[in-house]
Design a protein that fits this description.
This protein has 296 residues and is of the alpha/beta class. It contains twelve helices and 13 strands. The chain has one domain: Divalent-metal-dependent TIM barrel enzymes (TIM Barrel, Alpha-Beta Barrel). Strand 7, helix 7 and strand 8 form a beta-alpha-beta unit.
Length: 296
Amino acid sequence: MNPGRPDGASSPAPAAIDRRSFLGALPGVVLLAAGSDGSRRSANGLRRRPLEAFGIQLYTLRAPLADDLIGTLAAVAAIGYREVELAGLHGLTPRQMRTRLDGAGLRAASSHHGLEEVRGAWSETLEGARELGQGMVVVPSIPASERGREGLRRVATDLNRAGEAARAAGLRLGYHNHDWELAPLADGTRPMDLLLERTEADLVDWQMDVFWTVHGGADPARYLRVEGGRVTSLHVKDRTAAGRMVDIGDGIIDFASLVPLAEGAGLRHAFVEHDDPDDPLASARRSLAHLRAILG
């Protein structure tokens, strides 16, 4: 997601990182052994199926969707995507959106919902997600006013409560990071670590946005090795050495290593995203083609 959106997220000045520095953080990655059934065995011995397909966060396509919802969904399917993550319903009810997605041959795997929904009519949000056929709902941001220690404590309590309600409805709750969660506080603690410590692992997953994790100065591979069981979905988006967001394959992030590492730890979904592409459909096409080329 974009920190310039009205969700209140913000971004510091880009931190430069070169490919050698980024890859230098990866030597500890444990290679995953492939099984005869196509599964991979992770370092902890658990066998996990690799992703069946990449999805796309529809925020990437918000402009063409606003102009032509049905045509854009058809184009997304023609590119080769089979699942999507929603960032709003474009004025439709959940049932109406489900009909449009079904017509295009797409399924909604997840959707983003603000903290105000968690603290409001959360049961209605969950019911809408069930109508859409989703398995997951995600909180994409925390207001700037609640990013201190006490605010994070309150948010963690709310996320645990929301996660329990989601589980009762047959859904998983996730939290999606930007860069500020990975930038250390004055005492060196990262807000993301506080959220992970204060939320229950069986109630709240982490939707890791790889771009923003790197942009915040953290190593996504290290987090996947330590917290991988909680990273059930990824936002797959690339970054140049200077900190600019680009189509996958035009930056320096090593998805050929990161995606298998995440799969081995329990990844269920990976959504391609670009917050502000010049040509949204071309960006979606190029990014998926590159991922297929490097991952098969």
